[in-house]
């Protein structure tokens, strides 16, 4: 399952290439509670077809009613962009299903040029991080490659947002926990690769849409080429496999690196890496081990929920506290 941003932009590109009138709606500001974050996008075709989301549904319905009918502004629009705001009053917040006090502002881009959309889609498909800047006055779009994700910026005259390739996950070990975790990751928009040189484990693999490789784990990490939208989790329970991957991953730019194991096993791994492989306490600060947040996990499926929750938290800029993460790790994770 690819990222929702890429799905929205690809559909919008295809509609415009086919000659359909369409708009791109982007959440540019929020106040109070908001059902969707800044940067969330929705593409709307003049006949009512829509992809993506900017709210829980009611705002999408209003946009369709306002812009997708024979007499709508979209079919006769002469402007390039429009700023609309929802939830200003308590009545509007209730009408549109916004949380108490919630307000959001959207930038609507009418009939974006398909050439710029096509270039952007191809860049994202090739794994590039792109900064897209839109002029509200004339709708002109400037695309630049970027080395780091920057916050969305909107000042009423220009919208600048960073768009990137889908998030990726590399799992070491093709056991039952990896099956549950990869399934959850796919549904959260991650492209998942599972590495296990033990062919008998991969022969039993049953999760569709996941790439499998049989390289040694350190080679798999190198081939994977981790970036800031990548995470690596060691799940094999075999130090010969997990440690190889972790030693390589710790020196990459992956946003999350984790390893299964009890408190005792995790401490032994850290001592082993410092004593024999030249790691330091500082270099191991990036390692989430024991992996996952405490939810009282008892089964592989529950542990996978715990791990996925921590990965998403880190991806979203939150850092689960070490006390919360390790409170029950001896109980929920194999020694």
TrEMBL record:
InterPro entries: MoCofactor_Util/Proc, XdhC_CoxI, XdhC_Rossmann_dom. Residues 169-311 form the XdhC Rossmann domain. Residues 15-69 form the XdhC- CoxI domain. Gene3D superfamilies: NAD(P)-binding Rossmann-like Domain (3.40.50.720). It comes from the Bacteria. Pfam families: XdhC_C, XdhC_CoxI. This is XdhC family protein. It comes from Herminiimonas aquatilis.
